[in-house]
Q: What sequence folds into this?
């Protein structure tokens, strides 16, 4: 995690390169490939998921050339200039090229991969296709964007249930019935822009563009990789920042920020989404960000505003959101204030547009599109 995760997220935290870690990565990937080879039927389709298993496609093809293999990369794929730092860059590329179809979240990620192939190999590329020679003849490997989604109807149904609606009302009462409730929901990860978001909110309070108790921010920060030093440091920084802002702007019975460092079940998340007026997704880099889509799916009353980082994959699809550059704190502050003061008519128009996209393009449609594209990839002669 200290190598590939930061490498794929714009080296927000410096990656570490250790040969012992690479050896362990290879061993784990081989075990997964051998297990899949033992289980798969003749001519079966195998779908490999995410960056932890980037060597599996080639290892599996070596063991079972009869299989049709797909791979999906859930996180961003970095530009060549960043990917080139990886000491084992060529081995990773060769591992991925064992697949028939390599899926990414955004077109830019697929383009980054194609550029890496062109620079680090002698293979021929034509648009999204890469020609890969092999014992059974040439194979055409395709790279493309397949933006992932959520079980939209499930969140929609939960948000319509009486129990979740009652819980949403209860949440607002427990928070003192603020006029505007802002919400952030993230894993506690340095890629999510939590510090940037809290800093922007604190400055809005300082400048009295927002006030307590009229406004409250609920920040859910689920525990994540707590044994990693960078995450321990992030938690400390976030909690110090929250404490300072609450000390300066909170009142008896009304905090400026309600900070929760634990996870919640889906029903409670749906209630939080429903209770919120403004959802803040301020990722510095994110493959997709499904929280943004969950929020939209839960807004069954067409009420609510999504403030969304342009560096999250969801920004390509959710054009009804207010898009921000999270590094631009002043710009983020303006967007938050605009969201807070948005006229109901504009809010409903934007949310309807968002909901149409999220409800139509759900996780089932995503998987069907990927698998149908994989099935259509021509097999090499002799397979």
A:
């Amino acid at each position: 995690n200290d190598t590939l995760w930061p490498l794929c997220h714009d080296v927000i935290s410096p990656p570490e390169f250790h040969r012992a870690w690479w050896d362990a990565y290879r061993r784990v990937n081989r075990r997964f490939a051998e297990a899949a080879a033992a289980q798969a039927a003749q001519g079966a389709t195998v779908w490999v998921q995410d960056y932890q298993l980037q060597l599996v496609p080639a290892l599996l093809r070596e063991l079972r050339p009869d299989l049709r293999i797909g791979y999906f990369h859930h996180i961003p794929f970095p530009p060549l200039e960043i990917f080139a730092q990886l000491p084992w860059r060529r081995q990773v590329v060769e591992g991925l090229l064992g697949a028939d179809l390599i899926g990414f979240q955004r077109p830019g990620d697929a383009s980054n991969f194609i550029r890496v192939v062109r620079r680090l190999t002698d293979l021929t590329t034509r648009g999204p296709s890469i020609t890969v020679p092999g014992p059974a003849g040439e194979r055409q490997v395709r790279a493309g964007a397949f933006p992932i989604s959520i079980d939209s109807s499930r969140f929609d149904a939960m948000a319509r249930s009486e129990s979740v609606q009652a819980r949403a009302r209860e949440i607002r009462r427990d928070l003192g019935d603020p006029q505007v409730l802002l919400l952030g929901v993230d894993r506690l990860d340095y890629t999510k822009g939590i510090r940037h978001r809290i800093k922007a909110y604190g400055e809005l309070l300082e400048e009295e563009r927002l006030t307590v108790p009229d406004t409250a921010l609920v920040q859910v920060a689920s525990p994540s990789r707590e044994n990693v030093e960078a995450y321990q440091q992030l938690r400390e920084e976030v909690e110090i920042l929250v404490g300072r802002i609450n000390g300066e702007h909170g009142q008896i019975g009304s905090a400026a920020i309600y900070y929760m460092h634990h996870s919640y079940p889906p029903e409670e998340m749906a209630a939080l989404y429903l209770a919120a007026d403004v959802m803040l997704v301020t990722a510095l880099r994110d493959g997709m960000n499904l929280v943004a889509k969950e929020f939209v799916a839960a807004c069954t009353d067409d009420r609510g505003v999504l403030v969304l980082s342009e560096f999250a994959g969801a920004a390509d699809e959710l054009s009804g959101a207010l898009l921000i550059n999270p590094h631009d704190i002043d710009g983020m502050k303006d967007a938050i204030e605009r969201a807070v003061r948005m006229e109901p008519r504009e809010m409903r128009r934007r949310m309807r547009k968002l909901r149409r996209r999220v409800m139509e393009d759900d996780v089932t449609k995503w998987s069907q599109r990927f698998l149908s594209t994989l099935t259509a990839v021509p097999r090499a002669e002799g397979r």
In short: The longest strand covers residues 180-187. DSSP finds 15 helices and twelve strands in the chain. The radius of gyration is 23 Å.
